[in-house]
Amino acid sequence: TFDPGGMEYLRTLKPIFTVTQHWPPVSRIQARYCSKLASAVDTVREKKKTVDKFKSRLSSGPSFQDFVKGLPPFVYLALNVCGDAKGVLWLIVAVYFETYGCQMNVNDTEIAWSILQKKGYQRTAHLSEADVVLLVTCSVREKAEQTIWNRLQQLTAMKRKRLKTHTPMKIGILGCMAERLKMELLEREKLVDVLAGPDAYRDLPRLLAVSDGGQQACNVLLSLEETYADVMPVHHAPRGHSAFVSIMRGCDNMCSYCIVPFTRGRERSRPVRSILEEVRMLSDQGVKEVTLLGQNVNSYRDTSDEQFCGSDATKLSRGFKTVYQTKRGGLRFSDLLDQVSRIDPNVRIRFTSPHPKDFPDEVLHLIAERGNICKQIHLPAQSGSSRVLKAMRRGYTREAYLDLVRNIKQIIPDVSLSSDFISGFCGETEDDHQQTLSLIREVGYNVGFLFAYSMRKKTHAFHRLQDDVPVEVKQRRLEECITVFRGEAERVNAALIGSTQLVLVEGESKRSAEDLCGRTDGNMKVIFPKEDVHVQPTAFSTVPISVGDYVLVKILSANSQSLRGRALSLSSLRAREVHCRTPPEDQRDEHVAHTQP
């Protein structure tokens, strides 16, 4: 049986088939049916005769169970007969998402789901219940694409089994891989029913409808304008404590190794009013941390309003340049960051992924001064060799990058830095590799993302350079970079031993249900025992710690990947400056420096 309150929702869903038989009008039947009133001149006896005839025909015909026989239990159906007594059978379509790659793909999943939800689709967390499986994909490296190909083989085998017992299952590819490999995806063993590129999510309902007819459906057109500004994403953050907010899409940097400009198109920024509206909504929902997203997030430039369209040139970090002509006008990243951080002083603001060229001093000073903007900057270097950086078309030298690092540390003394590095890029020599190792040692990052180079079609490197570093050399250099990186990260993290850090609680530790975990302002993972804490540092009463709480944690030990400590009390961002500080070196607890979490 169905909840009558859900009938209005069911009327929005698409019909599977209709029963064209028109029944004679009756005045009284079961509650789920309605009818036109009989003519006023009908006698009571004629009415009863009509009803009896209707019941007789209904009892001898096919039942509701005959219609739904063989369908899986997760398909919800309703028989809705009303008005002219025309029967309609409705199907609620269950959608299952799998997301691969960067945070932008997480945000794309939320956008795609928002669009489908408004069209009456339901989301399921169980693959076995899915009528439609959508993979949100990444094309940055070959390994990421191979993961999708392997997954498609698994899903296709499941799809073939489904045809024997259940309703057909549709498979769709969304995101970067859909755009880059559209022909191969459509033709290779017919693995995919639907393809939608990063700018085509609005078209998903139509594409799925086309695939219902047995045809493959595809839209991978890139747009110069699409930002999904009017689509409010349906956020699925862990228990609602954090959320990603997309502020721009695409990239104009054209680094020689990068596929992003070809899979996600040119830069375009979402109007500031739309971003502020989403952040306010998240704050009202109790979200404690918002991460602003973009392929080149700090190149944000809103030109949607005439008042923003001035002639001022975009400012770059000193010593940096671009492959494109200087852009003018628009509301800049520093303006957006300022407005977003003012919405709720108790909501942390992060941003990723930036480009080093877009850190003028006004951005750095804002980060330093505003209490709820995290003192953590992702600063992708890619290489420590000026020669390789030139081949990568990064727009800076090793010296300019190190000058920027020194400027950041001077303006934001307690800053935490993270970075990206590529090992084995085209033409990289052993000397180039050694320069990268020395850069890692000199800067002192606490988080890093390191990969061996993987050439991508369409890129500048594919057309102009030779992928001439052997695979085994790439792997050896990558392992050496990782070893040096971990050593420096452990040194940087050890400096926090003895300090008190404000931690946003994310949930239980993956390794032990007896521990909780969260992240510091510097984006370091902290693990601590699940114990009741004081409501305030000076209070006597204690309370359990909940997900989404800000907690003061005394750091007792550190390794290259995480910190371990003990929770002291609940707190807030506003109280952070009073309680969170790194102790002088001679006051640290040296005896716990080498304890592993």
Write the layout of secondary structure elements.
Layout lengths: L6 H4 L4 E5 L24 H17 L3 H5 L8 E6 L3 E6 L2 E6 L3 H16 L3 E2 L8 E6 L4 H24 L4 E6 H5 L1 H6 L6 E3 L7 H9 L4 E3 L22 E5 L1 E2 L10 H4 L4 E2 L2 H13 L4 E5 L7 E2 L28 E2 H11 L4 E5 L8 H9 L6 E3 L7 H7 L5 H14 L4 E8 L6 H14 L3 E6 L7 H5 L6 H24 L5 E9 L6 E5 L5 E5 L3 E2 L7 E2 L6 E9 L3 E9 L5 H4 L18
Parallel strand pairs: 4-5, 4-6, 6-7, 7-8, 8-9, 10-13, 13-16, 17-18, 18-19, 22-26
Antiparallel strand pairs: 1-3, 2-3, 11-12, 14-15, 20-21, 20-25, 21-22, 23-24, 25-26
Helix pairs in contact: 10-11, 15-17
Summarize the structure.
This protein is an alpha/beta fold and 597 residues long. It is 32% helix and 21% strand.
Structural overview:
By secondary structure, the chain is α/β, with parallel strands linked by helices. The protein is 32% helix and 21% strand. The two termini are 53 Å apart.
Chain-averaged pLDDT: 84
End-to-end Cα distance: 53 Å
Instruction: Give me the side-by-side strand order of the main sheet.
Output: 5-4-6-7-8-9
What fraction of the residues are assigned to beta strands by DSSP?
15-25%
How many distinct helices? 18
Largest sheet: number of strands, sense, barrel closure: 6 strands, parallel
Q: How many extended strands? A: 26
- SS content category: alpha/beta
How would you sum up the global shape?
Answer: globular
Radius of gyration: 29 Å
Residue stretches low in confidence (pLDDT < 50, at least 5 long) are: 1-41, 71-90, 581-597
User: In percent, how helical is the residue content?
Assistant: 25-40%
